[in-house]
Every structure is written in structure tokens, then in C-alpha cells.
Amino acid sequence: MGTVAIFGAGVMGETLLSGLLRGGRSADDLVITERRAERAAELTEKYGVRALENVEAAKVADTLVLVVKPQDIRGLLAEIRDHVAQDNLVVCIAAGITTGTVETALADGRAVVRVMPNTPALVDQGMAAVSAGRHVSPAQLEEAKALLAATGKVAEVPEYLQDAVTAISGSGPAYIFYVVEAMIEAGVVLGMPRTMATELVVQTLYGAATMMRETGQHPTVLREQVTSPGGTTAAALRELDDHKVRAAFITAMEAAAKRSAELSGA
Ligand SMILES: NC(=O)C1=CN([C@@H]2O[C@H](COP(=O)(O)OP(=O)(O)OC[C@H]3O[C@@H](n4cnc5c(N)ncnc54)[C@H](O)[C@@H]3O)[C@@H](O)[C@H]2O)C=CC1
Ligand SMILES: O=C(O)[C@@H]1CCC=N1
Fold it and tell me: What does the entry list as the binding residues for NADPH (predicted)?
């Protein structure tokens, strides 16, 4: 994999950087670029990696990981275009940005992999989906997967599904945190101290997630096991159905996928 350069060291850039270091990669093989000087200094200090200008980083890198906002991708690609070599691998993490967009902005024949990761990568429980562009060799695709595998699970998906991936696992952690916030709020309404409600909700989420993964049972079966006839859960779920929560999730995730598709023209 040689030297990996992370372009844009914000939330996701730091998440990937720290994951690669936890995965055993040497700080000497990692460089970052960051427009905000104070942020670059913070990460240099914290992780012992070099911070370079974009062009310098492109020159030394074997693998270039683009982690700027979709709106900043085109400017970044224009800056580094002439320094991306034929045998480099370019991994683009920006929501909505297609491999075709990146390929067009670079010189002919460059290897581009599109990836949608998520923030649980920070605790090595990430879910990343990868799609290869037109000029990626099987070995380069494996390399991209290995890069992401340092921070969690990796799936390969056809690129047309990346907008759906973004709506599901990319943005997904935010929906879960939103539900957790609502459940904590409900605990407070029921008279429970906030810290206690938080502990109960977070452990319930962790337990439920672990059950889904470890039993392999469908969520419907697990939900039915909790729902006693005429009981408390049935009363609560009826309210959620009356408030169209399931339909709201579908509409919300359709909106996320639509926005991802729109960002391709960012
Ligand atoms: N935050 C998330 O949960 C996820 C984010 N993504 C994608 O990752 C990308 C980054 O997102 P975040 O880390 O959340 O954003 P962020 O705003 O925290 O980080 C982006 C960083 O790039 C820097 N930057 C911008 N233009 C630059 C340039 N030309 N050269 C060097 N640095 C530059 C900014 O100063 C900033 O620190 C986005 O494209 C987003 O779609 C993908 C999956 C999940
Ligand atoms: O909200 C966003 O646009 C990014 C992409 C997926 C998660 N965060």
C-alpha cells in the first residue's frame, strides 16, 4: 500500500487516519493535508504524521484518499491532477461523487475506487461499501478494501447502489443517535434523571444490536419476542404506527439517497 495520503482531515479524515494507525500502519507511511492550519497542527501533534500541501502529498503518495466535502472535490482534483501517477490508487469518500467524475478530472486511466464509510469506524465498528471505477485492477480493489477493513466491515457494491448505501449506513448512525436522543427525552418526561435514562437507552441499543448480530434472527422475530399480547410494547408500537414512524424512515432515507445523487453535480 506504500504511503497513504489523506486529503482533508476533518471528522472522517481523522477517523480513517486513527484507524490505520490502530491497525498497525506506521505514522511514517501516512501523510495528511488540511486547509485549516490549526487542524493540521492538532493532528500532527496527536498522531505524529506529516502534514503537507496537496501537491506535495500527491507526489509522495501511493494511495490518495480524498476526504473533503463533495463541494470541495473538484477544486482538489484540479490541484492534484498532474501529480497522480498511473500506478497510484485514488480512493474517494465524498458522498455522491461518482468514479466517473473523479476519472474525468484526472489524467486518462487512473484507478479510482468510490467508498462510503461511516463514523462508527472510530471504534472499529465501521461499515464501508466500495465500488471500483473503470481502471481498477483486482489487486487495487483488494488494497482499497484492506484500507477500510482496518476500521470495520467492508462490502463491495455495484456503484448504482452507492446513493442507497449513503442513505442507509453512511447517514445511518445519525438516525440511530436521533432515536436515542428521543428515547432519553422520553425517560426524562417519565421522571427519570437524564444520566440514568442515557445509560438505560445506550445499553438497550447495544444489547439489541448485539442480539441481531449474534442470533442472526430477523428483527421482526426479535421484536415479536418483546411484544406480549395486550402488553406494554404493543401499546407503544401502536403509537409509533399511528404516528407513521416506519413511513417517515422510508421517506427520510429516500431524501438522503436523492440528496446523494444531487451531490454528484456539486
Ligand atoms: N461525516 C460522516 O459521517 C461521513 C462523511 N463522508 C464524506 O466524507 C467527506 C468529509 O466529511 P467530514 O469529514 O464529515 O467533513 P469535514 O468538514 O469534517 O472535513 C473535511 C475537511 O477537509 C478540509 N478541506 C476542504 N478542502 C480542502 C482542500 N482542498 N485541501 C485540504 N483540505 C481541505 C476541511 O478544512 C475539513 O477539515 C465528505 O465528502 C462526506 O460526504 C462519508 C461518510 C460518512
Ligand atoms: O451527511 C453527509 O452528507 C455525509 C455523508 C454520509 C454521512 N455524512
Answer: 54
Sites in the chain below the pLDDT cut of 50:
none
- Ligand 1 pocket test, pick from 15, 52, 68, 127 with the greatest ligand atom count within 8 Å of Cβ, gives 68
Domain termination residue (choose one: 117, 132, 162): 162
The minimum-distance atom of ligand 2 relative to the CA of 174 is 7
pTM greater than 0.80:
yes
For residues 210 and 114, state if they share a domain.
no
ipTM score assigned to the predicted complex? 0.98
54 annotated to a ligand binding site: yes
- pLDDT, tens digit (0-9, with 9 covering 90-100), for 235-254: 999 999 999 999 999 999 99
Residues 131 and 137: their CA atoms lie apart, in Å, by: 12
pLDDT of residue 265: 80
Structural domain total, the chain: 2
Q: From the centroid of its chain, how far is CA 81?
A: 25
Burial of residue 7 (CB within 10 Å: 0-12, 13-18, 19+) is: buried
* CA gap 29, 21 in Å, rounded: 10
DSSP assigned state of 136: -
Name 100's Cβ contacts closer than 8 Å, sequence gap at least 6: 133
CA 232 to ligand 2 centroid distance, Å: 36
